[in-house]
Amino acid sequence: MTVQTVSADRAPRAEQAPPALVLDRVSKHYGDSVGASALDLTVAPGELVTLIGPSGCGKSTTLRLVAGLERPDEGTIRIAGEVVADGRRFQEPEHRRVGLVFQDHALFPHLTVAKNVAFGLDRSPRAERRARVGEVLELVRLSHLADRYPHELSGGEQQRVALARALAPRPAVVLLDEPFSSLDESLRAQVRRDTTATLRETGTTAVLVTHDQTEALSVGHRVVVMHDGVIEQADTPEKVFEQPSTRFVASFMGDADFLPARVHRALLTCEIGIVSTVPGWADSDVAVDVVLRPHEVALRPDPDSPARVSAVEYHGAFVLHHVRLASGRTLRSWQPHNVRHPVGTPVAVTVAAGTTPTLLVDDRAVTAPPRTRSGAPVGRSPMSDELDQTFLR
Ligand SMILES: Nc1ncnc2c1ncn2[C@@H]1O[C@H](COP(=O)(O)OP(=O)(O)OP(=O)(O)O)[C@@H](O)[C@H]1O
Fold this sequence. Notes:
This protein is an alpha+beta fold. The protein folds into two domains: 8-245, P-loop containing nucleotide triphosphate hydrolases (Rossmann fold), CATH 3.40.50.300; 257-391, CATH 2.40.50.140. The protein contains nine helices and 21 strands. The strands form five sheets. Strands 6-7-8-3-9-10 form a six-stranded mixed sheet, sandwiched between helices. It has a six-stranded antiparallel sheet with strand order 13-12-11-14-20-21. Strands 2-1-4-5 form a four-stranded antiparallel sheet, with helices on one face. It binds adenosine-5'-triphosphate.
């Protein structure tokens, strides 16, 4: 199996061409429900963006706005440099250079594979149409099934036909709405790899909606995390996971625990002791919450520790340990599959060397010490006094 990783460095660059897609302060409300609120997003040509968030956060609304299936209340949408929706203009979906791939594939049951793929090409001359159908079917490795009907195909093959149909008219952007969720687990990974490989190979710009955090992180050049109709963070997968911009992103994208902590003279301290140094915070004294992910938390049995293992979950390659601290708060820690500390074991809890944890003030990540207008440190909380008594006397 080839594992494909993508980093920001490898995201495509196309300085000359206009962005493939621009959302500029785009909003859509349905009565009291917020579908999208002042969305700002620019997608570069060839970029693959994943859109993720909890149910009802506005992912489908965003795709529908781009496709022209909804009209924005406010804001401007541009596709390949052309305004397709603003306060005055509204281009109908069939005139937008957008390809759509849905969860249920939405193939025409009475048309063969080749005719399904040709569907969006009806304005091209016949010979050209036939050549293009052949080309995209080859791209998705389905040339040998051109004369079959959708019901004669597997789920994965149907998904590839849907992708070929979306790509055939050379759209500026392909929108994929949970394209793999109807496939069973074993097929999903393969179809996902094939689809992203095809999108990359053809330099196609794509926005892919998913519910799956791992999928969002592993296939996108960029991940857009939505919550309540707003974009909470749009960043490389590494940044979204390692430097979440809000408490919501930290907890939604992977497992995260939060402990009240304090940065005092550049030392980050919390209930488990000194976590790390915080360069640049030498003259601050600030109450924060520290975000700790289970892979950053180290454990070792220690009969003198007040912390106890409270639950153990076997996940195969790794074992998740839940640890109850003296305060009653819980941290989780991934351990290798051969390490299992039974429930009740007293354990010393530390943070793995090299960890640079995210610090939150008022649920937003901070990288510099917050200050009042007069320059005084801010954010002291009752927890700071508790920590003073415990660690900093
Ligand atoms: N046609 C509609 N009429 C009224 N409210 C709507 C309509 N479409 C969406 N909404 C509301 O807008 C909000 C965003 O919905 P949307 O379908 O975009 O979310 P989503 O993130 O795609 O959710 P899911 O992951 O469950 O598909 C929700 O509160 C939803 O109830």
